[in-house]
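TASK: fixed-backbone design
INPUT:
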């Protein structure tokens, strides 16, 4: 494999901006939307609520939510992906009510992924919360500014509270916030529509509520996880790849490790070129909130470590069930010891062999594709919907680099 690959818009930014369009009556123009399942489901949820959605280009939409008169999320869609929870705050803030089921998504947390921080945060802003076991009903004539401390750092929790507080009466101070770049992007966009948010990208965010927000324009930022995934693929497959339309400064935690283990690269303002190394060393990682090592690159990094010399400890600290793929890599020939549900030790380098696998979640799915591309023989990966949730046309784009991937069924 070799060549150039372009990074698409960020899933975890697009799936916040689409719901944020509910915060205003005016038109919101969004461009660089990735054509992925989670974004398409978000658009379906918006359409189901009564939004007018106009396709203005291959990756852009105008969204107008003036005539929304439904405040209930379609349970079938909401159960499909975690980001459906992002619709709750804007509906509650603008219309004073919302009904929704527990959101679905990757099976990476204990049982269902919790939403306690959302409920606690909305309650701090004055929302009344009821549940009948199947649905949550939230009501608040007018949300009121408050102080809220996140006892666990949460990306979507921080984003939901920013949206809710933007239309609340008075000042909200959020403490121990997540600092992911997607949160800063959401805040910059809302400020361009008249919101008063300061501190996004730091642990403390202050929001002065306003009565109304205007429409606006938003270009979805490049997907930093896709950037990191392609960088890992290049390193693992020893493929000279240039990754374009990306922001290398947002994957510093990965590039700093590349420097230490002996994988050379060059960067420009919006590109990253990986220069494959025949031999590189193992490294211990511990996933961490931004700007630390992203949990969303952890599975792909494990695949890379199967090709590295020596032992590497992979320590997943954000989720409880994000090492489920390890067993499948072992079946492919990787030398992996599971220490406990959060830590595994990989010893490399090992040759991998094609197998029949099932993708447990989105990021494990792409890791398996990387493993399959460097393995001898053919690999079949089932449950590929998971990968389609977050990576646009992954087969077509990787095949252009020389991969041989076929979609069956
Ligand atoms: N948590 C709670 N209660 C809550 C919310 C979260 O205990 O109410 C816990 C979670 O169980 C987890 C920790 O807090 O242990 C951190 O989770 P966080 O809330 O930050 O995750 P998230 O906001 O649900 C987003 C991304 C994930 C990404 C994480 C961490 C979106 C839609 N999802 O999830 O992306 O892994 O932040 O960076 O933005 C992915 O893209 O594959 C993906 C899973």
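OUTPUT:
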């Amino acid at each position: 494999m070799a060549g150039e690959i372009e990074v698409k818009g960020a899933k975890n930014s697009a799936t916040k901006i689409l719901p944020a369009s509910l915060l205003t009556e005016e038109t919101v123009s969004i461009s660089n939307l990735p054509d992925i399942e989670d974004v398409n489901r978000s658009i379906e949820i918006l359409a189901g609520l009564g939004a007018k959605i106009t396709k203005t280009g291959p990756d852009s939409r105008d969204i107008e939510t003036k005539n929304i008169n439904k405040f209930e999320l379609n349970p079938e869609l909401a159960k499909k992906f975690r980001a459906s929870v992002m619709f709750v705050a804007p509906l509650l803030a603008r219309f004073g009510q919302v009904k929704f089921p527990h959101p679905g998504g990757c099976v990476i947390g204990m049982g269902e992924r919790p939403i306690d921080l959302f409920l606690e945060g909305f309650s701090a802003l004055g929302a009344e919360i009821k549940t009948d076991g199947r649905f949550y009903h939230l009501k608040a004539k007018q949300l009121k500014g408050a102080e809220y401390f996140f006892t666990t750092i949460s990306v979507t929790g921080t984003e939901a509270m920013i949206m809710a507080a933007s239309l609340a009466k008075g000042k909200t101070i959020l403490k121990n916030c997540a600092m992911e770049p997607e949160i800063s992007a959401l805040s910059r966009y809302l400020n361009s529509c008249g919101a008063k948010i300061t501190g996004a990208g730091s642990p403390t965010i202050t929001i002065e509520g306003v009565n109304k927000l205007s429409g606006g324009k938003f270009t979805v930022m490049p997907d930093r996880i896709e950037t990191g995934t392609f960088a890992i693929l290049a390193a693992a497959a020893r493929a000279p790849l240039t990754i374009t339309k990306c922001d290398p400064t947002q994957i510093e935690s990965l590039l700093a490790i590349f420097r230490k283990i002996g994988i050379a690269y060059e960067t420009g303002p919006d590109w990253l070129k990986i220069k494959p190394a025949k031999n590189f060393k193992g490294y211990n990682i511990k996933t961490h909130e931004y700007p630390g090592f992203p949990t969303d690159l952890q599975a792909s990094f494990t695949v890379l470590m199967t090709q590295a010399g020596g032992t590497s400890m992979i320590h997943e600290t954000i989720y409880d069930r994000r090492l489920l793929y390890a067993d499948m890599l072992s079946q492919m020939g990787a030398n992996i010891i599971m220490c406990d549900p959060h830590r595994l030790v990989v010893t490399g380098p090992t040759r991998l062999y094609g197998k029949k696998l099932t993708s447990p979640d989105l990021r494990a799915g792409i890791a398996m594709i990387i493993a399959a591309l460097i393995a001898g023989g053919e690999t079949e990966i089932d449950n590929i919907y998971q990968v389609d949730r977050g990576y646009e046309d992954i087969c077509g784009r990787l095949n252009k680099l020389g991969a041989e991937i076929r979609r069956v069924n």
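COMMENT: The radius of gyration is 21 Å.
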